[in-house]
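User: I'm new to structure prediction. If I give you an amino acid sequence, what do you actually give back? Let's try with this one:
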Amino acid sequence: MVPVVAPAYSKRRKQKPGRGTQGDIWQLDEVFIKIKGEPHYLWRAVDQDGDVIDILVQKKHDTQATKQFFRKLLKKSGVSPNQIISDKLRSYGAAHRELNMGAIHVSDKYRNNRAENSHQRTRQQERQMRRFKSAGHAQRFLSMHGMIYNIFNLGRHFNSARFFRELRVRAFLDWRDLSQVASNVC
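Assistant: Good question. You get back a string of structure tokens that encode the predicted 3D arrangement of the chain. For your 186 residues, that looks like this:
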């Protein structure tokens, strides 16, 4: 059921202008993962609110791979960010210059902590699933996991308890609606 719910949520997110729109500051990071004993890289982009924009699993860790990730982000979001925050990996700067994105690129130490911390949930899921079986499996699962996480990422520390409870109820109602859409499709 989940494979149908995530694309439905993604489509709804693009259609709704209020809640669910992504921010204009993107934080990027990559992490090393092993799939069947081979090294792969999990690229992740989150906005300033901690919502996952997109992920990409690749074997390479160079400028060409970074450009591919940037292109995927731009295509999926449909808009260019005002600011890109990354770690000091040189391929981010090279890809940013080559694609001429127009966004400010910042690579200061500790500035992309939100993206760094977003990998923790991935590591937990990876342990629970006893590793990913293939790069495609990791890509599909983590893309959907990120979109579903965004439904329930409500920023508790930004809201009063009453408003947070109301947002939480709305999130569960959205999830129920999406689940019903998925069950009708299956």
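You can read the tokens as a compact description of the fold. Here is one thing that stands out. Confidence is low (pLDDT under 50) at residues 14-19.
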